[in-house]
Design a protein that fits this description.
alpha/beta, Rossmann fold, 14% strand, 2 domains, 13 strands
Length: 399
């Protein structure tokens, strides 16, 4: 009997997508699978596991990123590294590939998908953003731009956003992605949110089976946790409004928090996590700025001490911060964007339209002063966020 072998591919083994890849890998191995995690060498990577495959070294990745930036042909370089990777894949002889993020110029897309089609290897592809069916953009809602639905992308309005490029090759890449990514014998697409699944169904990937498997979190970490943060900062009589993001900017709604700080009276205290010295120069002095937390347990303490978690992000797929807050017993107020509204229900939070700061201000006051949501309802809702249940859904797909 052939061993059940999976090769997972991602742009790294760090961050949210890296953690998802590793979590699925660990659970699959418990079920008897042999799993190889493949990714490029990167300074942000966590320590490698024994069976990990390095697709390309960091110096080579810098070259391919530069070539992609100056030419616009993202995913068309890294030829030698991809050929060497596929040679390793041939030796491994996988039962299936499991793709995550394929952007960031670390792998040659035409070589990869030509190999898949030639050898008829089944593929599961988890889309963590919209990049797979656009000319180049992982997100487009805030622009908004929907050229990918029709004749295809062109004249991209986001050349200065990731992946940054000096040349507009969006038309070329949209047409070639359509060629590369279609006509695969066995491809199953997974999205973390129904919102993204609905977009995929309007793209050139619509003919593939599409399923939703939500992201999950570790409920052993994210749960109501005691904290002395309120006492240490003399906030005993304040309503704490918490925001958490990494890469604060307009897309994450930093301007919304700045505006709210002007509107909310002294009963409220805004606390932002994930800031830095540059952000400190922008935000008002009355906002408490926390650059980094030491670990996830400290983050759980901050979620737990807050009266309300506010997520004014304008572009999201299925944000884990919403789940983490609810799992710690804190209700969520969020913009109606991406999969963010799918996380809250009528007993754990409230959704307002994007950029409706008047309504957001009104709901902050209402939720905090009326104690609208309970700890018990939040904890009941959080049971659906258990990451191990989500990993098992992937194992079921492998089967």
């Amino acid at each position: 009997m052939k061993k059940k072998i999976i090769v997972e591919v991602n742009l790294g083994n760090y961050g949210s997508t890296g953690n998802i890849m590793k979590g699925i890998s660990d659970e699959a191995e418990k079920k008897g699978y042999v799993v190889y995690q493949a990714y490029p060498q990167n300074a942000q990577n966590l320590p490698a596991q024994k069976q990990d495959i390095v697709i390309c070294p960091s110096w080579y990745l810098k070259i391919t990123r530069s070539l992609a930036m100056y030419t616009g042909y993202n995913g068309c370089f890294s030829i030698l590294a991809t050929l060497l990777f596929l040679r390793k894949v041939k030796k491994v002889n996988p039962s299936a590939f499991h793709f995550h993020n394929l952007h960031d110029s670390y792998i040659n897309l035409p070589l990869l998908f030509r190999y898949i089609k030639k050898h008829k290897i089944p593929v599961i592809w988890t889309l963590h953003d919209c990049w797979a069916f656009t000319g180049r953009c992982p997100h487009f809602v805030s622009i908004p731009c929907y050229k990918w639905k029709g004749a295809g992308c062109s004249s991209c309005p986001q050349l200065n956003t990731y992946p940054i490029t000096k040349r507009d090759r969006s038309k070329y890449l949209w047409e070639h992605k359509k060629h590369w990514f279609t006509k695969i014998d066995n491809l199953q697409i997974i999205t973390p949110s129904q919102w993204l699944a609905d977009f995929v169904k309007q793209s050139f990937l619509k003919d593939y089976p599409i399923s939703v498997i939500n992201n999950g979190i570790d409920l052993n970490i994210f749960r109501p946790t005691k904290s002395d943060f309120r006492q240490n900062n003399s906030l005993e009589s304040k309503y704490i409004i918490l925001g958490v993001a990494y890469g604060w900017g307009k897309k994450k709604g930093l301007d919304v928090f700045i505006e709210l700080s002007k509107r909310l009276d002294n009963r409220f205290q805004i606390v932002l996590v994930g800031t830095n010295k540059e952000i400190d120069k922008i935000i008002p002095n009355d906002i408490i700025s926390i650059h980094n937390t030491h670990d996830q347990h400290e983050l759980a303490e901050l979620y737990s001490v807050a009266d309300l978690f506010v997520n004014p992000s304008r572009e999201e797929n299925y944000p884990t911060v919403n789940m983490e807050a609810i799992a710690c017993g804190t209700p969520v107020l969020t913009f109606r964007t991406g999969g963010s509204p799918e996380i809250v229900d009528d007993k754990t939070g409230y959704v307002v339209d994007i950029d409706d700061i008047d309504e957001m201000e009104k709901q902050i006051v209402r939720i905090c002063t009326n104690k609208t949501f309970t700890l018990e309802d939040c904890l009941k809702r959080s049971k659906a966020f258990d990451k191990y249940l989500k990993y098992q859904e992937y194992i079921d797909l492998y089967e």
